[in-house]
Specification:
The structure is a homodimer. By secondary structure, chain A is of the alpha/beta class. Chain A folds into two domains: 3-152, Rossmann fold, CATH 3.40.50; 165-258, Pantoate--beta-alanine Ligase, Chain: A,domain 2 (2-Layer Sandwich), CATH 3.30.1300. Helix content of chain A is 36%, strand content 22%. Chain A has helices spanning 14-26, 54-63, 74-77, 95-99, 103-118, 130-142, 172-177, 180-193, 199-211, and strands at 3-8, 29-34, 68-70, 84-88, 122-126, 148-152, 216-224, 239-247, 250-258. In chain A, the strands form two sheets. In chain A, strands 3-2-1-5-6 form a five-stranded parallel beta sheet, with helices on both faces. In chain A, strand 2 (29-34), helix 2 (54-63) and strand 3 (68-70) form a beta-alpha-beta unit. In chain A, helix 8 packs antiparallel against helix 9 (199-211). The first copy, chain A, is globular, with a radius of gyration of 18 Å.
Chain lengths: 260, 260
C-alpha cells in the first residue's frame, strides 16, 4: 500500500501534474502538499508576491485523483520558538545554493518536516530543480529516510521554456525572450553530441547565446559534476549544464544533463 | 501495535534498564540501539576510551525482553560523503551545549537517523541528560516527528551518585568523592523547599559543597528555566539545577528539578 508524496508550492502547472500522474501510477495513495515555504526565500526574493491560486490547484488535483491535499499555514509549520534545521553541507555550496544563501536549508528543513508528518514511501520532485534533487537524495541517504526520491523530467512549453510558476511574472516580450535559456542549453547539448567535450567551450557557447538576447541578464552558467555539483573543466564525459538568467526582473533557471 | 525505541551508547546500567522496562510496559515491540556516536564527542573527549561490553549488554537486554537490538557500525551510520546535519539552535547554546561545542548537533543528527530508520511511536531518554531531553523534544516538535519522547527519572546508586557508564572511570577515592554532586543538588533542593528561592543563593549553596570536595573541580553550575534553559536570576518558582564537575579526569553531570 505505498504512499506517494508530491510536495509543491502550488500555482500548479503541467510540470507539477506530471509528478502527480507519476505518483498516481506508482502508489495506492497520493498526497500533495501546497505550502509556499518562507524559509527557502531570501529577504530580497519573491515570497510575498509568489503566485497563488488554491481553488484552481484543488480542482486540478481532484481531477488527477489525488487522495489528500495538505495546505498547512505558516504558523502550523513554523510555530513560536521554531529553531530546528536540517542542513546539507557540500552539495549546497554551488549553483543555486551559492546564489541563494539559506535557500536549501529552507528546502531540506521543510521536506524533512513533510517526510516526518506524511511518512511516504516515495516522494516526487522535478528535474527542473536539478540541485534540489541532488540535495534531497543526499539528505535521504544521510538521515536514513526509508523513502525513494523519484525524479520526473522537465516539462516544457512548445517553444522550449521550462514550465515554472514564476513564468507568470513575464510580460509578452520577456516571455518571448525567456526561450533563450533552452536554446542555449540545446545548442550546447548538440555541440557536445557533435564531439565538443570541453567544459569551458560548452559554457562559452551558452554564454554567447544568452548575451545575444537583450532582455536576458546571465547570473551564472555551469558545467558541473552530476553528483558532487563541483564545477568541471577540461574534457567531460557527462555533466549537468545549468544556468540562472534574469529576464527583466524575473529570475529563471534551467538545465540539461549531457552524456547520459 | 506501538513500537518503543531505547537509543543507548551501550555499557548498560540500571538507568538504561529502567528505560527498557518502561518501554516494555508501554509497547508491543521494543527496539534498543547501541551506538557510540562519534559525532557527539569533541576532539578532546573520550570517544575511543568509552566503555564497551556488547556481550553483557545483549544478555541484559535479552533478559528484559527486548525484541530487537540494533548495533550499527560507524561506516553504516556515517558513510563516505556524509554531510547532513540536524541542528537545534537556541536551547543548545547553554549548559552542556556551551561546554561541548557540536555535541548536540551530533545527538540530534543521530537521533533523527534512528527515528527515520526505526519509525518508533515512543522513544525513551533519561532525565540524567536533562538538556538532551529539552533539545530532542524541541526537535520532535519542530520537525513534525509523530513520536512521543518519554523521559524516565535519574537512577542513582545507594549513595546518590547518578548512574552513568562513565562512572567506571573513577578510582575508589574518586568514586567516593563523586557523591558530592548529588549532595550539592539535594542540599539546594532542601533549601529551596525551606523557602530559599534566590537563584544565586541556591547556586552558592551548591558551589560551596562542591568546593569542599578536594577531588572535585566545578565546570559549571546552573539554575535555568526548564524550557528555554536560559539562566535564571532573582526569585524562582521552578527551575532546573544542574552542574558539570570533574572528579579527577572524569567529567560528571547531574541535575534536579525544583518547584515541580
Amino acid at each position: 500500500m505505498p504512499v506517494g508524496l508530491v510536495p509543491t508550492m502550488g500555482f500548479l502547472h503541467d510540470g507539477h501534474l506530471s509528478l502527480v500522474d507519476l505518483a498516481r501510477r506508482q502508489n495506492s495513495s497520493v498526497i500533495t502538499t501546497i505550502f509556499v515555504n518562507p524559509t527557502q526565500f531570501g529577504p530580497q526574493e519573491d515570497l510575498e508576491g509568489y503566485p497563488r491560486d488554491i481553488p484552481r490547484d484543488l480542482e486540478l488535483l481532484e481531477k488527477r485523483g489525488v487522495d489528500l491535499v495538505w495546505i498547512p499555514d505558516r504558523e502550523e509549520m513554523y510555530s513560536k520558538g521554531f529553531q530546528t534545521w536540517v542542513t546539507v553541507d557540500d552539495v549546497t555550496r554551488f549553483l543555486e545554493g551559492k546564489m541563494r544563501p539559506g535557500h536549501f536549508r529552507g528546502v531540506t528543513t521543510i521536506v524533512a518536516k513533510l517526510f516526518n508528518a506524511v511518512m511516504p514511501d516515495k516522494a516526487y520532485f522535478g528535474q527542473k530543480d536539478a540541485q534540489q534533487v541532488v540535495v534531497l537524495r543526499r539528505m535521504v541517504m544521510d538521515l536514513n529516510y526509508p523513502i525513494e526520491i523519484v525524479v520526473a523530467p522537465i516539462v516544457r512549453e512548445e517553444d522550449g521554456l521550462a514550465m515554472s510558476s514564476r513564468n507568470v511574472y513575464l510580460n509578452p516580450a520577456e516571455r518571448q525572450a525567456a526561450t533563450v535559456l533552452f536554446r542555449a542549453l540545446k545548442t550546447a547539448d548538440q555541440a557536445f553530441k557533435a564531439g565538443n567535450r570541453d567544459a569551458d567551450g560548452l559554457k562559452r557557447i551558452m554564454e554567447e547565446i544568452i548575451s545575444s538576447e537583450e532582455l536576458a541578464n546571465l547570473q551564472y552558467i555551469s558545467c558541473a559534476d552530476m553528483d558532487s555539483l563541483e564545477e568541471l573543466s577540461g574534457q567531460v564525459n557527462r555533466g549537468l549544464l545549468s544556468m540562472a538568467v534574469f529576464i527583466g526582473k524575473t529570475r529563471l533557471i534551467d538545465n540539461i544533463l549531457i552524456g547520459i
